[in-house]
Amino acid sequence: MGVSAPLPSPDFWRGRRVLLTGHTGFKGAWTALWLRRLGARTTGFALPPEASPSLFELAGVGADLDSRIGDLRAPETVAAAVAAADPEIVLHYAAQPLVRRAIADPVETIAVNVLGLAHLLAALRGRPALKRVLVVTSDKVYDNHELDVPFEEDDPLGGRDPYSASKAAAEMIARAFAATYFAPSGVWLVIARGGNVIGGGDYAEDRIVPDIVRAWAQGRRPVLRMPDATRPWQHALDCIAGYLLYVERADRVGQRALNFGPDAEHPVTVGDLTRATLEALGADPAFDVEPNPRPIEMQSLSVDASRARAALGWRNRLSSATAIRWTADWHRRVRLGERARTVTLDQIDAYSAIEACA
Q1: DSSP secondary-structure letter at 223?
Q2: For residue range 169-224, what is the model confidence (pLDDT) as tens digits?
Q3: What does the domain layout of the chain look like in residue ranges?
Q4: What residues are paired with 191 via a beta bridge?
Q5: Which phi and psi angles does 132 have, rounded to 5°?
Q6: Taking the CB of residue 113, how many other CB atoms lie within 10 A of it?
Q7: What does R_g of the chain's alpha carbons equal in angstroms?
Q8: Alpha helix positions (H), the chain
Q9: Quick one: which of 120, 331, 317, 304 has its CA closest to 217?
Q10: Which of 75, 84, 72 is nearest to 25 (CA)?
């Protein structure tokens, strides 16, 4: 039987001026559509969509907000977007999110994820309407020695690859700005460490579910690098719900960082995820394994989200199996000709209508 869990409140978001960075990305597009449902007045700031197709374009997300295309590495452009939005709330998603790309070009990743955040926070200093800032980092910020123990918020930060290190460094920058500039002005700056998200409309390169969907669409088997690796998989809507609830209650919660992830006691491997996704798509659940993958990612990763559950009442409404089914259903419906916008909004409405998993 399900148990009740809070949802983002239209009473809080209705009419609020929100600056959403990264709105052209996968998770940003889902958030922009949900904010429109909640009645927020959103300005987006991001690079153009990188993937083609992209959820942003397929679902016509640009019609739901003031979409501004720009680069976090350009401080004048960032400042102009902040001035135009005059935000009460900032949701900072924009990032270079790919581990293997960060290995290939660490300087670009650090410039976007660390210096870009500094540009944004500098532009937000002294904004009279500003009340709350949410900085989204990653479950990979922790100093991971692969002990198969879920990370808690007080565990040491680290990062043995450039992406992870850039996100840990971004947290240090965020905390410094919070203590020096925002807290004295009564502005709440909080940090969300989200687990690996899945969902319809993700077409990014070098990411497991898009790779599975591409293989399915082309009638071939997916090729996995690390089928036994575990990650904290959750549907994008579960993760986003946590972010929005955190913003709503930042003044009451009093935390500076919270994990958002699924139950760490029931890990799902990359192989499990692949088989379940293919089955949900109606395909043969077989896959191939790269013979000499030379993995650069950690084998195991999980986070303890008990603080978010205690402080916010948040929990995943979708089990891992349901999240996979919803993801596959999105792609199947769109492939059969339904409009991506309709399917995405249908799932947002369905998510809001169900009880949380016990």
Answers
A1: E
A2: 999 999 999 999 999 999 999 999 998 899 999 998 888 999 999 999 999 999 99
A3: 10-204+232-269+299-319
A4: 135, 257
A5: -145, 145
A6: 26
A7: 19
A8: 10-13, 26-38, 55-58, 75-85, 99-104, 106-110, 116-124, 162-177, 208-217, 236-248, 250-253, 270-280, 306-312, 320-335, 340-353
A9: 331
A10: 72
- Is the peptide bond prior to 53 cis by the omega test (within 30 degrees of 0)? yes
In this predicted model, what pLDDT tens digit does every residue of 118-133 receive, in sequence order? 999 999 999 999 999 9
The residue whose two tokens read 């690859």 is 161
- What is the separation of C-alpha 88 from the centre of its chain, rounded to a whole number of angstroms? 21
Tokens 């840990």 correspond to 168
Topology adopted by domain 10-204+232-269+299-319: Rossmann fold (3.40.50)
Distance separating alpha carbons of residues 264 and 148, to the nearest angstrom = 10
For strands 66-69 and 89-92, give the pairing.
unpaired
Residue 124 host element (H or E): helix 116-124
- Per DSSP, the three-state class of 153 is coil
- pTM exceeds cut of 0.90: yes
- As given in the structure block, the two tokens for residue 75 are 């401080």
Question: What's the Cα-to-Cα distance from 349 to each of 25, 37, 101, 240, 343, rounded to whole Å?
Answer: 21, 9, 35, 14, 10
| Dist CA 283 CA 262 (whole Å) | 26
Q: Cβ contacts of residue 91 below 8 Å, gap of 6+?
A: 18, 19, 20, 21, 31, 134, 136, 243, 247
